[in-house]
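Per-record layout

source: Geodermatophilus sabuli
name: D-alanine--D-alanine ligase
length: 331
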Amino acid sequence: MTESAAAPAMEAAATGQPLRAVVLAGGLAFEREVSLSSGTQVWEELTRAGVDAELRDADAELLPGLAAAPADAVFIALHGATGEDGALRAVLDLAGVPYVGSPAAACRLAWDKPAAKSVVRSAGLTTPDWVALPHSTFRELGAGAVLDLIVARLGLPLMVKPASGGSALGAQKVTRVEDLPAAMVSCFAYGDTVLVERFVDGVELALSVVDLGEGPEALPAVEITPASGVFDYTARYTPGLTEYHSPARVAGDVAVRAAELAVQVHRVLGLADLSRTDAIVSPDGEVHFLEVNVSPGLTETSMFPMAVEAAGHELGDVLSRLLSRRATSTR
């Protein structure tokens, strides 16, 4: 990051007015509360950085509001389907509204975890073996028979999670065969398709990537150590239940390979501006891709802000520079 952190302020001075941004937060997905927390944090950081920022929900008033008072750029702090499946971004594209983040098509790919894993594996990166099946398969073929085949193929323990979604909602580690049916039922509450993958024991890393105009760059890895051993929804958003270390306490060569993996994931999936890849480092030092987030959390307990701080940058500066890049063509 070699550009001046004062770029948005310099641009504002050149145009005679501050950069105007709309921060989108909330929505109707399961992750609404997390999104509101992220959006509030983004709004506060942008305001401190000198941006004229407004916090809005993604509702029926959004498009009329943007038409009546156009923003230089929109920052999407929505989590879950509303902010990450590409639909909202496609609508913003139709309206000609610039926004920070990945394009709609890339978001659709990243949102579909099995599809993203397939693309990542095709690119030569390592990801745990998996199977993804819709609820109808279990209903039509018999849950017991299908689950027996899954265990025979992947073994135990397993990680069971919705094939789309974030914040680890519905995700569970399964160590006993008898616990698998209940874990599947829990996942189906969040979506029609479940992803079951081989559980990899090791050091969990959050690998943030940002692109401020010189190509995607990996920030220092954040090591995640949940007290429960599983980084589920509660461990993510309850202060004190998880320890974070940034930079991660891994060997230098592992840190380099983890950073390279995150940047490659960002590139092969066609992502833009910012992303966060979740990965596991196994005892042999192999870095395993788990999933990628196109709208990483920006709350007080989120890993992207930790990585920005570990890199020696101010979060507000990074966010405002991302906005400034997207707003350039409209100012």
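summary: Confidence is low (pLDDT under 50) at residues 1-14. The radius of gyration is 20 Å.
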